Structures are given as structure tokens and as C-alpha cells.
Amino acid sequence: MIIGNLKSNYAADEAILRSWPLRWGFWAAIAVALIAPQFMSGYQLYLTTQATVYLIALVGLNILTGYTGLVSLGHGAMVGVGAYTTAVLANTYGMPVFVTIPAAMLMTVAVGLLFGLPSLRIKGLYLTIATISASFIIVFVLETWESVTNGDSGITIPPANIFGIEIVSDQQKFYFILPFAIAAILFGQNLFRTRVGRAFIAIRDGELSAEIIGVNLMKYKLYSFAIASALAGLSGALFSYMFLAITPTLFELPISIQLLAALVIGGVASTLGPIFGAAFIVMVPEIVKGVLGLLSGGDMSWAEYTAPASTLVYGMLIIGFMLFESQGLVAIWRRFWRFVNLWPFRP
Amino acid sequence: MTLNRRTVLKGGAALGAATLATPYLARAAAHANKEWILRGSIPLTGPFAQAGVDGLKNTQDWVEMKNASGGIAGKQVNLQYEDSGYNPTTSLANFKKTMSDDVKPHFYSGDSTGFMKLVQPELSRTPVLNGGTSFATDLADPANSPYQFITGPTYNAMAEINMKYIAQQGGKRVAFVYSDNEYGRDPIEHAKKIAAEQGLEVVHEEVTDLQGAEVQTHVAQVRRSNPDHIFIHGYVTSVWPQIIGTARAFGMDAKFVGTFWGMELVIARTVQEKLGDALDGYAGVMPYRYFYEAAESPAYQELAAFKTAKYGDEFPGYITTWSLQGLATLALLEKVFTDVTEADIEPTPENLSAALGKVQGWDSGGYFGLPVNVDDHAINQARVYQYSAEKSLFLPVSDTIEV
């Protein structure tokens, strides 16, 4: 049983991983992430990589919505800005990955700030509606600015090239994207130990009181939009290098809704929430489909019934989690570690 | 059992655990050397579920019929399709799952223009012959996409036939109504170009949602432009009938012309039941014979005999155009598989693609009106049909036209 986290110096007090189970758990997770792809099929790697790409976007959305309290339904479109910036630079201008990824982040920050400006005057539902409008506008531009985006035909992207190695296989793509995801998570965790992150939380918990204690609302709200957009841009850039072909349809409103749902399911305003959320939205529909396929014995004549049943079960699972675990999947995780810490006593 | 947080979470954990075993248990055994393996992603849920479910049933029947008569070139056909929900990334997940299997398929069916584009980079790494429900113009491009093909004319070709038909009918002012997605917009630029060549003035463009469009507002906009013809494209089961019905209710007498996915008899008859003769005179492009023209199609007769034997009176004697597209693809695959077998070459994706490109003068058994030439991985021939409210049928009003 762990009876407390005893600290004898300032560094220990500042540590992110404050107990040995957390430290071991973190390194074990990294080890699993590095080794597991060796044993995974292309399909399993595809899902894992897709979840990793969404995870980066979710870290950004968590900063904006979870910590700053600015609900956005335009985040999927921001991912699209990053994806298209990368695609255009890589395809049309032959830019390397070292240029395209920072450029995608910068471009998305610029667009994010533009659409973040209304947040200075409106909040709550009104801001959410404004972000939906942003989503429509961005997708409209992607569809109609044909000379740059190639319209509905979309853009094919050359594979990322790292020091002469083309990132083509499923394993390469995963290993290419994983460090960005780890960096994003660590960045998200660290941000809230800084003055900027604490200002975000102050804004979320009460704009008036935040302003009274000296938080510049305009400045920090725009910071929040900028950081969230930068991570969306990074996610979009990696999205391009993962799929190697993109069309505007991929960044329409449903993806923004999906990202917000993932955040709520995973756990808002927590570091691990985006990880659980990303895994949930990508893996669970496939899991449900797989189970129902198993129950039907792979018999095609059942497909017309199992397919809608999968959608129904997935929807019910989401409702179930909201009803029975409203703090998100991260709450289960916390209870598990409380159990481990206090074992053999019951928490 | 009490329904509380613990039971729900335990249930969720059990579901997850059961799934871990799924990939190892649920796959149908497949043998690449002994079978023709067909895999696909089809919308069994989502906006096109009605067409997807219908298409799957008829595809299964066709496979059962072929297998009962010895298969194709001596090999049985092994079919497995999965639901896509009409979501390109879900379809791509299905594709990756299929291509992760040790035994690779000979053909993979895709379900949307979005997926067919998303899968193009994957095809260069894990090649497989790839067709589907989309007639998108970009897919008929063997130089850049050697494994993809269209069993019919491209949307551009359909639009071209429509514009020429309107010009022949003496039309002068044409309005475009199409859905706000890549499928809806695909042929619009080409249609404008052909309209200009034919001396037609495009007086209005109305863009609607794929589903749940506010039809009255859209029709009111179109009416203000006073067109004599309206080109409508980009829908499957809904919106297009409501637009035509509302236009008639508004007193518009402009003639509507459509494309393949808006030419289904089941929908037309439903509209007629609800709205009377609103669809009378509606014309559009149809690459395949309707199933009620089976007298001219030995392939249709064979399938009808099989389905009558299997279902008895439950078989209505009609197969939807949505299904005919899939069945025509299967017939074309049968031709390609047979050619490869007779030439005694391995049915690799490269060889199958090459064999597909060489199909010339093929007797399709009546799916198409003329002998089939696969040019640039598409079959650019079709006929204009017009709906007759009196007979409740789409009747041909042109010869088969090659574009």
C-alpha cells in the first residue's frame, strides 16, 4: 500500500510522474507502444495510427474546451486546414516534412485565431454555433478553391521522407506519428503547470473572477485557440502523411462532433482523457462490429441485421457511459489506480 | 441483475475481451488458388442503406447461382462484404482488415467516391482490382489508378449524354440541381462545358443537402430562373423525387433529366403513388437495361429463373438498378476471371487489371445495349429512358449512345 507521496526536494514536488506506479506505468506504456506494432496486422496498425492522429487533435481540443471552457465544433475543420496545408506544400511544391509540418501548424494557428476572435465577444452556445460556422466556411473553401485544393477530387500526398527513408508501411507510419503524440501529451500535461495554463483554467472557472485577479481574457483566450489550432494542424499534417490522399469530405462537421464526443467520453480536462477518447471512437465501433460478426458466425445473410445493430450498440454504449460514468473513461482509470495504491485495503 | 455502474463496466470489459478473439474466429476460410475471393465495403447503414442492403442480397444470390453451376472457370466464388455506413475511413478500415489477411482477394468493392479516392495510395502498396458504386470521373484513369474501374459511363459521360439530349429536345435554358458533395459536384463543370457547346444557357445552379434538404426553398429558387430543362444529379433514394414533386406542385412544367442513381423504378413508383403523375416525362441516363427488359437479356433470364426457384412468389420479378450495377460488375469480373484462366496466367492484380483493359466487343448477356469495350477502365455507353406514368415504367427514348 502506498500511504503517501513523500517529497524531499523541489524537483520531486514538480515531477509529472509523482509515484513509482505512475513512473513504471508510463515507461511500460512507451515500451508496449514501441514493441506492439511488431506483432500487429496492417488493420490493427491502421486503427492504432488513426487513433494516435486523433489523439493529437484531442489534446488540442482538451486545452480549448476542457481547460479553457471554449466549446468548439470546428476542430475537425482545423485538422483539415493542417492536412491541406501539408498536402499542398508536399504535392505542389515538393516541400519536405520538416517544412510542411511546422507550416501546417502555423497556418492552422492563423486560421484558428481568425475564427477565435468571436470568442472575445460571445461564449457558451453562441460560441459553439460560431465554431460550426467556421467548420462550414473552411470546408466550403477546401471544396471550391480548386486551383489550390483540387476541389472534390482531393489531393494525393507523397509519403513523408525522413533522412531518405520513405514512410510508407503501416509500421513506419505508426512509428513516425507516435513521437508527436507523446510530445503532445507531455506538452498538454506541462502546460497546466505554467502561468498560461493556469490562466486557461481560471477563465473556464469564471471569466469575471479571472479578470479580477489579473488574467487578460482576450490574450489568453486567443492563446488557447492558437495552441489548440497548432495541435489540430499537427494532427492534420500527420493525417495527410497517414492516408496519403485527402478530400474535403473527411473534414466536414461529423469529424468535429466525433472529436468532441471522444473528449467527453474519454474525460474532459484530464491528460489521459484524450487517449481514452481517441481509442474509444476508433476502436469501439470496430469491436462491436467484430463481436456481432462473431455472433453471426460470419454468415453474410445476417449482415443486413448486424450492421444496423452495430450502430445501435455503439450508440447505446455512448449513452451508457454518459449515464454510468459521466466523468469519462478516465474516472475508471483513476479508480483502478486508487485500488492499486491502497491494496490490499478497499478504497 | 441490478443495472449499476459496475455491471455496465463489467459488461463493457467482457465485450472488449470477446472481441480480442474475433479476428481469429470470425473469418470465413478462403483459399486463393481454389476460389475467386470477392471482398467489399457496402453501406448497410447510413444514407444509402436501402440501396446497399438490396445490392448485397442480389450479389449473394448471384454468387450462389454461379457456385451452384460450377463457379467461374472451375473455381467457386467466396464473398464477404462489410458495412461501411457510407463513411470513407470506415471503408478504408474494412479494406485494411481484408488486405491484412494472409489470403488476398481478387476483387475489392468500394462504396463511395470518397473511399475510392482514399484507397488509391493503398492500392499501390497492396494492389487489388477495385470497383464499386461510384462512377466518379477520376476513377477511369488507368494511367494513375491502374486497379480501379467503373462498370458503366463516368458521371461526366452521363452529364454529356443529358446535355445532348436536352439540346435534341429543343431545350434552351437549363438549370442544375445537385447535392453538396463530391458525388453531386463531379460532373458539373463538364456539364457546363457541354451545355455551352450545345448552345444551352445554364440559367441557375441549386446546391442541396444529400439528405433532408429544404426542398421547397430550393425549388422556389429554381423556379425564379424559369428553365425549360432541369439537370438533377447527386442523390439516390431521396431529395430528387421530392424536388420533382414540389416543382410540379409549384406549377413548373420544366422537364427533368437525371443520372443513374436517380433512375430507380421503385422510387419512381412510390412517388407516383403519393404524388400522382409528377414524374411523367422525367428522363435520365441508364447504362443497363431495366430488369423488366429481361426478354433482351439472357443474363437477366438466368438470374430471374434462379430467384424464382429460390424465392417462389416472394421474388417480385424485378431487380433494382442499384443492384444491377453490382451485378454488371460481377458479370464483368466473370469475363476477366475467365479470360485470365483461359490464357493460363496467374490472377494477380496486375494480370487482372491488364485483362480488364483488353475487354473489347464483350457480349455482356444483355446488361448493356451494345457489345462492351472497356476503354480507360470505364464502359462509356448508356441509353436515355423516360418515365411513363401511364405504364409506371421507364421506357427507352433513345438508342444506346457511346460517348
How far apart are the termini of chain B?
Answer: 66 Å
What percentage of amino acids of chain A are in beta strands? under 5%
DSSP helical segment count of chain A: 15
How does the helix and strand content of chain B classify structurally?
alpha/beta
| Shape call of chain A | globular
**What portion of residues of chain B belong to β-strands?**
15-25%
Q: H/E series of chain B, N to C?
A: HHEHEHEHHEHEHHEHEHEHEHHHEEE
Instruction: Give the low-confidence spans of chain A.
Output: none
Percent helix range of chain A: over 70%
Largest beta-sheet details of chain B: 8 strands, mixed
Please state the oligomeric state of the protein chains shown: heterodimer
Q: Determine the structural class of chain A based on helices, strands and strand pairing.
A: mainly alpha
User: Quick one: how many beta strands of chain B?
Assistant: 12
Which residues of chain B sit in consecutive blocks of at least 5 with pLDDT less than 50?
Answer: 20-28
Query: Residue share in helices of chain B?
Result: 40-55%
Largest interface: A-B, 51 and 53 residues
The spatial strand order of the largest sheet of chain A comes to: 1-4
The best one-word shape of chain B is globular
- Outline the biggest β-sheet of chain A: 2 strands, antiparallel
| Mean pLDDT, all residues of chain A | 91
The N- and C-terminal alpha carbons of chain A lie at a distance of 11 Å
